[in-house]
Give the backbone structure.
Amino acid sequence: MNTDIRRPLPAPTAPTKDLIERSGPATTTASQLSDLAEAAGSLRLVARFAHEDKIEHHQTELFRAWQQRTAVRGRSAPSPLLDELADLGFAWRDVARMLAVSVPAVQKWRRSGGVTGENRRRLAGLLAMCDEITTRYHVQEIASWFEMSIVSAAPVTPADMYAAGRPELVLEYASGHTDPEQILTAYDPDWREHFRSNFEVYVEADGEMSIRPKGQ
């Protein structure tokens, strides 16, 4: 009599089962891909809004700091404020242009005073702007900085923006947080067309720089 007992094979354990029963690769349906793309787009939109909100908050705080400095500077008499601007290297024509007055008016203020309240605030604001930029952003020789072109392709300077009533752009440019071309676009959306040149600089065969019409 055959006493051999045939025992049933044990059920495969988890690792063994994985080797025996290979499942097909997981698939992602078109609707799932669409949902993922929409979710990613929503996150990107939220991040953009958060970034823009931080930029706006930073600009607001810069403007408030400038206004506070203006109030402090406004306590001083106009004549010492003008002397300080002269010591910083500003020409009277530049001071007059940024304050929206004439050069004779500025010269009169130095001699005999007679500054109106509004002009006194403008004068204090210009010095406060210099304080804010030199103290916060360590800009040296502030007068020549005001006369430096924002980009090489256009002759627009911080002084131009300040004279046009855009001090917030001057502060943003000084901060270095925004591309200069973006700042210039905020000041003049058509600046590229306004300052487009039909000429270009090139190097002659002898190594000297020269100018010629574009396309030649």
User: Anything to note?
Assistant: The beta strands are 199-203, 209-213. The two ends are 110 Å apart (CA to CA). The chain is about 60% helix and 5% strand.
